[in-house]
What we know:
By secondary structure, the protein is of the alpha+beta class. It folds into 2 domains: about 1-30; about 30-205, no CATH class. The chain contains 5 helices and 14 strands. A hairpin with a 5-residue loop joins strand 12 and strand 13 (about 245-260).
Amino acid sequence: MRIAQRFPFLHTVSIWRFRVLRWMRWIFFQRIATHHRLRPLPFRVTSHESLLLRKLGDADMRLQTNKITNLRLASAKMNGIIIRPGETFSFWRLVGWPTAKKGYVTGMLLSNGKVQEGIGGGLCQAANLLYWMALHSPLVTTERHRHSYDIFPDSGRVLPFGTGAAVYYNYVDLQFHNPTDTTFHIIIGVNETHLHGEIRSDILTPHSYKIIERDHRFTRSRTTGKIFRENNLYRQTFDKRTGNMLSDELLYKNHCETLYRPESKILIEEAP
C-alpha cells in the first residue's frame, strides 16, 4: 500500500503544493496570454468542432448533458484570447477554478482509469479541441498530459486515438507557446450540437499541417492477459504555396491499457 493511501491527507498536501507552484510559475516565470479581442483576426489558421453528446460505454448520459453547461462557462473565459509573440496560452489560467459558486455543475471526471463525478467535469473536451487545433498551427505545445488508460470503446470517433489532453485544476494544464512574430486568436464556443473552435492570425501563415496515425493495433499481454492499444502519431508540415511536404515528424508513441474488451471483429495481437 502506498503511503498516500495510508495517510490520505498527504495526497491533499501534495496537490496543494503543486497548485501553489503553478500559481507562482504563472506570476513570476511565464508570459501568459490574458488579453481578449472581440473582432476576429483576418486569417483562419485552422478550425475544428466536436459533438457534445456521445455514448461513452455505460457512462450516465446525465453527466454528458451537464458537461454542456461546464463547457459554455469555460469557453466564455477562453473565447477571444490573443496569443502575442512570446506569450503562452494556459487553459487553467484563463478558465480559473471551476466551482459550483461560478455555476459549474457535476460532470464526468476520469481518474486512475475510473469514471467519477465532480464539479466541472467534462472540460477535457475543450482541452482536446484546443490541443488538436494547436497541432495544426505554428503554436508549440509546451505542456500536455494524456490519460493513462483507454477507458471507452470508440463511438463516433473522428480523431486518431491518443490525441486527447487531460486537465485537472490547476497543475495538470494544457499550455502552448507562440515562438513566432505572428499574433494568434482563439475562438471557441458551444452551439446546440457541437463545441467549435478556430485559431486565427493577423498575417497569413506559410504552412499547413496534417496529423497521421500509423501502426495502430491492439495487443494482449501473454503474462497478464491485459489488452493494450498502441499507435504512432506523426505531424506532416506542408508549404501552402507549393503543396510540398516539408517534414514528417514523429510526435509520440501511444501505449496504454484498454479497460474494455474490443469488438470481436477487431484483431487482438499477442504481444511478444
